[in-house]
Amino acid sequence: MAEFGVAAPSVEVAGDKSATLTGKPLSVVALRKTYGDVVAVDEASMEIAAGEFITFLGASGSGKTTTLMMIAGFCEPDSGTITVGDRDVTRLAPQKRNLGFVFQQYLLFPHMTVHENVAFPLTLRGVPKDEIRRRVGETLEIAGLSGFGGRRPRELSGGQQQRVALCRALVYRPPVILMDEPLGALDKKLRDQLQVEIKSIQQELGLTVIYVTHDQEEALVMSDRIAVMRNGRIEQFDTPRELFERPRTPFVADFLGAANFIEGRVERHTDEHTLVRLDQCGGLLTARRHALAPGTAVKAGIQPGRLRADAPDDGFCTGTVETATYVGTLVRAGVRVDGGDAPLLRLEVPAGRGPVTGERVGISADPDDVNLFPVEQGG
Ligand code: ADP
Ligand code: MG
C-alpha cells in the first residue's frame, strides 16, 4: 500500500503529454472481478468525460474499491477493458497508467518535507529543478498550504496532511485522479470543509476525478455524476439530480433520499399522468406518466421532503400524525395512514407549517415527484 501513486522506479516520462487528453479520458467496459465465489465487480461499464467529477457510491462491500483498484492497475480484472485516452491500459502496470491517487491513509513520506513530498512525482519524472519549485509552489498555494513547504508531515494536522497528499497527486497533472474515501479518517467539520476545497480545486484546474465514498451527502455535494453501486453492479450512473428525481430502482430511491414506498396497482392513464389505486387506504395517487400496464402492482417512491400534510379532506390518503420532531428549519413527521398497518409515512416540512402530534391530515404530492416501480412477481 505504501507506494501507491508514487512508486514508479522505471516510469515512462509522460511529461505533460497526459494533460493534452481530449474528450474521453477514461472508459471502462464490462469490468468483472471475482474472488472465489464472491463476485466483487460485475460487468461494470462507464464512460467519463474530461473534467468530470465522478463518484462511486455504495455500501461497504459493494465493489467500489475493487473497481477503483482495477482502474489504477493494482488489481487485475477477470475480464473487461479499461481505456485511458485512447490507450488500452487493462493489462498495463500501475506506474505506466500515469494516474494520480489519494487514499484514506495519507501515505506521505515522514522523513521528507511537504515540499519534497509534493515534488516527488516530478523528481521521479526528471522534471528540471526550477520547474519543480515553480509547480510545487503553485500547487501548495492552490491547496492553501503556502508557507508549509518546510514542515514534516507529523507537524501537520490530519486535514493538512490530506491536502498534501492531494497536492502530490495533482502536481503532475495526471489525466485522472483516483480517490478512495480520502476524507474517511477526518471529523465531520473538517470533512465538510475539505469537500468544498477539493471540489473547487477540481473545478479550477478542470481535473477529472473518480472519488469513492459510502456517504450519500458527500457524493451529492461533490459529484457531476454518481455511480450507485450495489453487490458489485452499477445500479444507476447519473447526475445527482437525476438519481434523486428519477431513480430507476427502489434501491436508488431509498439510498439517495430514504424514500417512502406506498403500494398499489396501476388503475389507468391520462395524457400526462398515471393513476394508482393504493392498497392500504384505497385512495387514488396521481403520478407523472409511467409506461406501466394497467393492473401492474407497483411501489410508489416519494421522498419525505416531497410529501405535504394538508387538511384531512385533501390528498390521496388521510392519517394521523404520530410523531413530529423539530430539526432546525424542518419538522420531521411520521404519519399513520388510515386503513392498515403500513410503516409510518415520513414527511419533512418547513418548521413554520409543521403538523403537530395527534393532528388529522391529508397527504398529497406533486405528480412529478412520484416515482413508480413495478413490484417483481414472486419477489
Ligand atoms: P467496497 O470498497 O465497496 O467496500 P470492495 O471492492 O472492497 O467493496 O469489496 C467488494 C467485495 O469483494 C466484498 O465482498 C469483498 O469482501 C470482496 N473482496 C475485496 N477484495 C478482496 C480480496 N482481496 N479477496 C477476497 N475478497 C475480496
Ligand atoms: Mg472500499
From TrEMBL:
The keyword Membrane does not apply. InterPro entries: AAA+_ATPase, ABC_SmlMolc_Importer, ABC_transporter-like_ATP-bd, ABC_transporter-like_CS, Mo/tungstate-bd_C_term_dom, NA-bd_OB-fold, P-loop_NTPase, Transp-assoc_OB_typ2. Keywords: ATP-binding, Nucleotide-binding, Transport. Residues 26-256 form the ABC transporter domain. Coiled coil: none annotated. It holds the Pfam family TOBE_2. PROSITE patterns: ABC_TRANSPORTER_1, ABC_TRANSPORTER_2. The keyword Coiled coil does not apply. It comes from the Bacteria. PANTHER family: SPERMIDINE/PUTRESCINE IMPORT ATP-BINDING PROTEIN POTA (PTHR42781), SPERMIDINE_PUTRESCINE IMPORT ATP-BINDING PROTEIN POTA (PTHR42781:SF4). This is Polyamine-transporting ATPase. It comes from Streptomyces lomondensis. The lineage of its organism: Bacteria, Bacillati, Actinomycetota, Actinomycetes, Kitasatosporales.
